[in-house]
Write a structure and sequence with these properties.
This protein is mainly α. The chain folds into two domains: 2-93, Cytochrome C biogenesis protein (Helicase, Ruva Protein, domain 3); 98-150, no CATH class. The protein is 70% helix and 0% strand. 9% of the residues are buried.
Length: 151
């Protein structure tokens, strides 16, 4: 029983060791930062650092390999974008293909506010009381309709 408990306690440590050690603390810091900036394409709401999906594990290995090869953060991100598209980045660049992603929520918000404003004005205009002249004209119209209906 003690061996089973010890084994269960060592599993997380073995998972970290499976990635391998870095040569410097700076490399490890870069790895952690990049892992937080890249999105898991399976989970979509998690970074590859937070995901246990097989694809995320592959991406982490790839990031580690490129860091050990001496590639820059920009080169690693460019490689990931070339392979998986801008969606792999948590902060995709502002360019023509990502305008909807960046500005779409603001357009929807403005459209909603304009619609709400127009509807509020219509509701307010429809609730205004009739003037005396309008009431008299309405009474004449209704009386004329009643006479036609009685005949």
């Amino acid at each position: 029983m003690k061996r089973l408990i010890l084994l269960l306690l060592l599993v997380p440590a073995l998972a970290v060791a499976a990635l391998g050690e870095f040569e410097t603390p700076q490399q490890e810091a870069r790895y952690r930062a990049l892992s937080q900036q890249l999105r898991c394409l399976v989970c979509q709401g998690q970074s590859i650092a937070d995901s246990d999906a097989d694809l995320a594990k592959d991406l982490k290995r790839e990031v580690r390999r490129m860091i050990l090869e001496g590639r820059t953060d920009a080169e690693i991100k460019d490689f990931m974008v070339a392979r998986y598209g801008d969606f792999v980045l948590y902060k995709p660049p502002v360019k023509a293909s990502t305008y909807l992603l960046w500005f779409g929520p603001f357009v929807l918000l403005i459209g909603g506010l304009v619609t709400w404003s127009v509807l509020a004005r219509r509701r307010q205009a429809g609730s205004e009381a009739l003037s005396d002249a309008e009431r008299e004209r309405l009474r004449q119209i209704l009386d004329g309709a009643d006479r036609r209906g009685d005949a």
